[in-house]
Amino acid sequence: MSMRRRAARCAGGTAVAGVLLVLLTGCVPSLNTPDAPDAPDARDDAADSALASEVLGTWAGQAEGDAAPELTFVDDGTFSGTDGCNRLAGRWEADDAEIEFDDVAITQMACSGFTSWLDRLDTASVSGNTLTVFDDPGAEIGTLTRS
User: Fold this and answer.
1) Between the chain's N and C termini, which has fewer beta carbons within 10 Å?
2) What is the pLDDT at residue 87?
3) Is 38 exposed, middle or buried (0-12, 13-18, 19+ CB in 10 A)?
């Protein structure tokens, strides 16, 4: 194939790709235009309910071996902690009845002789100084006490 023919074919392909890019760009709405205001983050007001103000701070469980499970709730809607072996973090939100966990990330270290339960957290409730943690089906999986 001659050099001229190869250059023409390459230029034609580039032109087609450019046209497709322009057409596709017109189909994607811009997220930062005055016509499309930022959607409010439901987590921005995580600490606005009465329950949310009760849960702020650190909660710890009974030690199993050398380490104890622990969760710390921050008023910006984030939490972090440990199940006694692995670290976990994510977001939380509370209404007047329960705390809901979201975007939870947890490490996966192997710990012998250890039973993890915080890795299954989904919701929680507070009664006095006790935080009761539930899994996705709604079964109680453990409790923590205010530290």
Assistant:
1) N
2) 96
3) exposed
